[in-house]
User: Which sequence fits this backbone?
């Protein structure tokens, strides 16, 4: 199982598939078929008989699902089924050894909590999924969300993994209200997520900002729960990043208290389990779960590619066919570009008695230049006021993002930059936040 | 030297004694010449001039200075100075002086009285008056008497409310069972199959053997760098389970837990070593209170800066200290006229090493009396005379905050 769902196959889309007679797999009950798609290839999956699901989303019988190169898929069946795979797979095997039953029991427990919440007119379970990298955190989240939404619940996915966000582009922290199960190929439909700009792919670059945005998300989620009864009962499932040592661990504890989580699911690490049991109050249930044997370790390159894919998907849509981004010029004078976090200075260079705490949350104006090229910029929802007032910096930090643009070219002479934008001009807002992430539009 | 009164040449007692000592004057008393010893006894009395005053007088006189008795009314006020009334004032003063010289002894009513020592030392006063100190005292009295703290403790430690309240958290995890591999390390059991209505699509699944999964848990040692290992060792040694704390155990939800943490944080701020904070003398500042060096220096500067003329006019005048003489420099003797003495070089206040040091209050008052002429303190120690004067100056400040 992978954390990220199917990948796009290329610009051709679903059109031309070499139709060869598929390999047939017959699965017993409570087993799963795992397969990986070779690079440059795509694989079609068809459910011939029985019932099966991919990460909690049910498959329709006799519908062909296409998975792009690099996809790592597990098709699980509770009752037994027959599947047909067409195309070149790197590996394809049936495994009886899945922790799905444990995950299902976890879901059952959460559902019990939701029932109790519904009965007592209280808030539903808030679950934090933690664990090191490559243990299937995102997959477990997707699974639990799918099960919940299939029972008519409306859970919220809180995505705190800034490196591999399943909701928005990397470098963001987001929350998504789930109303229908994830699409087998595409994942959850991203209708109106709440996205905050973080700006980097690892929380370590600015842990202060990370914790602050975590608190922001928690606050917004709580507000939502107050007005939306279903969201409140549905609770939330928080996906965290795989950094579980040092400050990363502290960030997890902070997140637990900010969201007031009820259950912490620890995947596959006893140390983390023991430490969280020690550092979280007793009314928080900390649960250790095994990871699935199907989880594959992803290399750095693989992660970078997924990130790139995610940004491409933002502009071009899934498989690069659904959206058509716009390119237009933006005058430097029309926008204000900021970077969050001033460069750190050694303490010895600071005036006496000054501490450096506040620099990490400072908004630093960036003068547009050639080095801006290929950077991803977040368009902040913060109101465009005249000139920067006193309390405005905080507002920008805490306001969500309404979209992203990529700078494709900078003309310093004409004082304009060309941007790739999901919508035609003009920009809805004029406050831009710069990310460390670059995106080069090659395809 | 001397003055004329109703056509008679008169001498002041100290002048007479000085001339006697110089051998320039013979005083007949009851038709007998007065010896110097008798002169001392007769002329230097409490009502006239004290021995110390005479010692200073004769000392300076011998050195060639011109000394006249100080009369407060001859000093123009600042207002008069501003209006340039000095001249007319001088005339009046001359007139006054002549009149007043009829009773020269009356002008020294208490010159010989040693100032009493019962007053509180003035330098200590601003210390108790500074607001910061007042606050510190207040808060320390809080911690000293522990009214604020004990209230919290009473609330927390009182078994009565916790006994009646339901200490159970909202979720009963005994009935809501999670497949937790961590807590089942010791005993293997299988999970009962979940109720189908809880599962999507009304699934029916069998029971789950948790025991089988225990063996499959990731037992691989986590790779940690040296620093991380050290940090972990430190954590393992010094960090205790938060749930060992009975107060934490009593919290039922995050709101209560957060409240407890906040309470502890503020308590820690209030908890201070008793030996420092419970006495009448407390530290002027505490860690974390001052953010900059400038602020800290300001906090610990108990002696407030004061200028000689600041608020002096509002001070109640005391009689313990008074100016005795005007002093004119020897080089002006040739032009010196008693009718128009001009501005003195300095004015003298006479005191003794046995007596107290003048307070800021007295110094301010004397300088106000003296006006634009500096006041010198002549301190007598068994015939030795030392001169001191106070001048305004600015203490250097290290940090400008």
Assistant:
């Amino acid at each position: 199982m992978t954390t990220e769902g199917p990948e796009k196959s290329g610009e051709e889309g679903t059109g031309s598939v070499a139709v060869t007679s598929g390999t047939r797999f017959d699965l017993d009950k409570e087993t799963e078929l795992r397969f990986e798609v070779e690079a440059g290839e795509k694989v079609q999956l068809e459910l011939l008989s029985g019932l099966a699901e991919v990460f909690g989303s049910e498959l329709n019988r006799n519908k062909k699902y296409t998975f792009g190169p690099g996809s790592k898929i597990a098709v699980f069946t509770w009752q037994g089924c027959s599947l047909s795979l067409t195309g070149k797979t790197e590996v394809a095997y049936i495994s009886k050894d899945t922790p799905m039953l444990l995950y299902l029991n976890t879901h059952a427990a959460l559902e019990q909590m939701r029932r109790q919440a519904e009965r007592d007119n209280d808030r539903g379970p808030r679950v934090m999924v933690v664990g090191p990298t490559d243990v299937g955190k995102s997959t477990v989240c997707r699974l639990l969300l799918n099960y919940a939404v299939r029972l008519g619940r409306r859970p919220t996915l809180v995505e705190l993994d800034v490196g591999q966000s399943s909701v928005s582009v990397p470098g963001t922290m987001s929350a998504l209200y789930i109303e229908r199960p994830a699409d087998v190929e595409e994942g959850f439909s991203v209708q109106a997520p709440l996205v905050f700009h973080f700006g980097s792919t690892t929380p370590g670059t600015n842990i202060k900002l990370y914790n602050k945005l975590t608190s922001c998300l928690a606050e917004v989620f709580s507000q939502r729960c107050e007005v939306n009864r279903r969201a409140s009962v549905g609770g939330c499932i928080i996906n965290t990043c795989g950094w579980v040592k040092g400050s990363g661990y502290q960030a997890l504890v902070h997140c637990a208290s900010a969201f007031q989580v009820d259950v912490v699911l620890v995947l596959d690490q006893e140390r983390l389990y023991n430490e969280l049991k020690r550092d979280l109050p007793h009314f928080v249930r900390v649960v250790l779960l095994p990871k699935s044997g199907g989880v594959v370790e992803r290399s750095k390159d693989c992660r970078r590619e997924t990130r790139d894919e995610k940004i491409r998907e933002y502009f071009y849509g899934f498989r690069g066919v659904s959206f058509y981004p716009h390119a237009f010029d933006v005058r430097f004078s029309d926008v204000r570009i900021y970077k969050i976090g001033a460069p750190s200075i050694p303490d010895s260079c600071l005036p006496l008695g000054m501490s450096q705490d506040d620099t990490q949350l400072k908004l630093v104006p960036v003068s547009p230049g050639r080095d801006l090229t290929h950077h991803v910029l977040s368009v902040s929802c913060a109101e465009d006021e005249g000139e920067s007032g006193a309390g405005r910096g905080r507002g920008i930090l805490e306001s969500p993002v309404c979209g992203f643009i990529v700078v494709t070219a900078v003309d310093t002479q004409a004082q304009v930059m060309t941007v790739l934008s999901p919508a035609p001009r003009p920009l809805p807002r004029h406050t831009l936040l710069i990310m460390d992430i670059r995106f080069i539009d090659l395809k | 030297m001397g003055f004329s009164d109703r056509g008679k040449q008169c001498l002041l007692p100290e002048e007479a004694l000085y001339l006697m000592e110089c051998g320039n004057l013979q005083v007949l008393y009851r038709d007998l010449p007065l010896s110097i010893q008798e002169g001392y006894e007769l002329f230097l009395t409490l009502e006239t001039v004290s021995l110390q005053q005479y010692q200073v007088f004769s000392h300076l006189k011998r050195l060639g200075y011109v000394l006249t008795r100080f009369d407060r009314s001859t000093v123009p006020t600042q207002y008069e100075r501003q209006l340039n009334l000095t001249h007319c004032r001088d005339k009046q003063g001359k007139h006054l002086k002549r009149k007043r010289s009829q009773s020269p002894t009356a002008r020294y009513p208490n010159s010989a009285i040693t100032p009493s020592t019962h007053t509180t030392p003035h330098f200590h006063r601003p210390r108790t008056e500074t607001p910061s100190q007042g606050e510190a005292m207040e808060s320390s009295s809080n911690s000293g008497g522990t009214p604020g703290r004990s209230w919290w403790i009473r609330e927390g430690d009182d078994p009565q409310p916790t006994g009646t309240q339901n200490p159970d958290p909202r979720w009963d995890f005994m009935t809501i069972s999670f497949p937790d591999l961590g807590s089942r390390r010791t005993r293997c059991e299988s999970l009962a199959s979940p109720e189908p209505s809880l599962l999507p699509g009304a699934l029916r699944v069998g029971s789950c053997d948790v025991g089988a999964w225990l063996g499959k848990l990731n037992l691989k040692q986590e790779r940690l760098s040296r620093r991380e290992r050290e940090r972990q060792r430190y954590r393992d040694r010094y960090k205790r389970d938060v749930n060992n704390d009975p107060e934490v155990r009593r919290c039922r939800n995050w709101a209560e837990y957060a409240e407890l943490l906040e309470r502890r944080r503020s308590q820690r701020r209030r908890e201070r070593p008793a030996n420092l904070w419970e006495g009448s003398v407390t530290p002027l500042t505490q860690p974390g209170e001052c953010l900059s060096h400038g602020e800290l220096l300001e906090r610990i500067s108990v002696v407030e800066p004061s200028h000689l003329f600041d608020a002096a006019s509002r001070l109640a005048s005391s009689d313990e200290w008074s100016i005795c003489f005007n002093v004119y420099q020897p080089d002006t003797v040739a032009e010196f006229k008693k009718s128009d003495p001009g501005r003195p070089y300095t004015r003298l206040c006479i005191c003794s090493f046995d007596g107290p040091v003048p307070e800021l209050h007295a110094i301010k008052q004397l300088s106000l009396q003296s006006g634009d002429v500096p006041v010198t303190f002549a301190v007598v120690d068994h015939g030795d005379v030392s001169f001191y004067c106070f001048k305004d100056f600015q203490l250097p400040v290290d940090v400008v905050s």
Remarks:
- Chain A touches chain B through 58 residues (CB under 8 Å).
- The radius of gyration of chain A is 23 Å.
